[in-house]
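Record 1 of the preview.
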Amino acid sequence: MEILKCEALRKTYGSGDNQVKALDGIDLSVSKGEFVAIMGASGSGKSTLLHILGTVDKPTSGKVTIDGTDLARLNRTEAAIFRRRKVGLVYQFYNLVPTLTVRKNICMPLALDRKKPNTEYFEKIVSSLGISDRLDALPNQLSGGQQQRVAIARSLIYRPALLLADEPTGNLDQKNTREIMDMLKLSHRNLEQTILLITHDEKVALEAERIITIEDGHIISDEHRGEVKSLS
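->
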């Protein structure tokens, strides 16, 4: 089942001689349950792609469909609601609310809709991520790795169609990087979560089952478990 589709996606900034093509005709399809890494150097277009998929930016042209919804049809309010309910976002900066406990940080997306978490699913998430014993702690009482686990749990609480992880290990040491990647793979396997991981780190990208490389706004390769399909 296709969960994400990008068709002829373009994003330009500026005009005339100052025009920059951040994305230049991206065609991309991701199936439900895939764990995909998108690699590229700084300025390659990978972050622009993530912002469009996360509904915080709009393409200049082209079409993006997530879980059957055409993002172009959403106004600003609808896009914010869609992002909260359908797209989980994990950044290298954890963006936790410092005055809220771990439990309340995790449940915040549901609280905004005045909903309560499914107890069984909540317990499954926090147990899988190894933070069951930290639910009453505040963010400043946690290590960086623990804070990132809370951020991942928060992104999963709504059972999103797609989890977007933007350099989630960028602020972590080698030990915590290993742990967070293990957590993402566990979420992928145990919760059947579709994950799109944005990274410039080849070692991190190799943890995914599919690696897409972007350069100058173009997809130049699409690797499925060691089988590389050149697109250049």
